[in-house]
Amino acid sequence: MLDVRKLRLLRDLADRGTIAAVAAAHNYTPSAVSQQLAALEREAGAALLARTGRGVTLTPAGAVLAAHAEEVFAALERATAALAATRTGLTGPLRIGAFPTAMRTLLPTALATLAREHPGLDLTVDELDPALVPARLRDGSLDVALVHDYDLVPIAPDPALETAPLLDETMYLAATRPLDLAACRDERWILAGPGTLCHTMTIRACEAEGFLPRARHHADDFVTVLTLVAAGQGVAVVPELALRPPSSPSAAAAAAPSSPSDPAPVGPSGPGAAPVAPAGVVLTPLRTRRRTRFAYRAGTGAHPSIAAFTAAVRAA
């Protein structure tokens, strides 16, 4: 019988690439990780690792076992979720991750609802870039997260995770006068930080119009971005949620999707008021869209705490 804890180390080695990285993630020493993986090889009756200089790689047998590990972990998560469903009341920690605009517009009302309806839940929230979420879900330091990607910058599926759609947003060009994207070839731009999804999305949207944007400023906070636009410092691309007021409990009755599996549209084509530009800023809708999803470990979507969270956010 294969030991699940050792199997998790093998899976993490496939994800992280080095024994040192796996050791750091689990607060083990590299020697302890190596010993556990050697024990797993004995249990499997096959060589799972091959030495390559100072490092190791997975053998074909190791790669097969690591791939099947995801099915094992998902089954365990489903069993845990089913067991939790037999208990009365929701208790214990629920660790949530979210990106900044979701923190401002979606979570306050949802957290207030959860605290009122399920006082036994211990809610904690980390604000972080969606690119950091998969690793945090896999290592168990998050239980559920709000993530986003763009139709121009899709994120590859992760076999360790599952997602459910929440909403699709219109992206807007923000400037001090009416402009379309093609007319911004010679404008100065306010871009998100290099390496972020928003930065990559803006680059690709401009490339589709035949030019590269010339960056004057870099800012990741959309309130700052819009303030700089209003000050005549450049043009920028911003999402719908950046143009919404902060969430409040009175907004809990805002429109939700007709089916839990259908994303709710926002913006002029969806429910709710049209986005409001700050004074001095003109908004032009673009073709590109941002898609927000729930993300959680495979098999945990039916866990009562996660189901309660997703329901509260949809209501918000």
From TrEMBL:
- Higher taxonomy: Bacteria, Bacillati, Actinomycetota, Actinomycetes, Micromonosporales
Q: Which residues form a coiled coil?
A: none
Q: Where is the HTH lysR-type domain?
A: 2-59
Family matches, as Pfam families = HTH_1 (PF00126), LysR_substrate (PF03466)
Taxonomy, superkingdom: Bacteria
Protein name per Swiss-Prot or TrEMBL: HTH lysR-type domain-containing protein
Q: Where is this region: Disordered?
A: 248-278
Kindly give the CDD domains that the UniProt entry links to this protein: PBP2_LTTR_like_6
| Low complexity composition-biased segments | 249-259
Q: Which GO terms describe its molecular function?
A: DNA binding; DNA-binding transcription factor activity
Alphabetically ordered keywords of this record: DNA-binding, Transcription, Transcription regulation
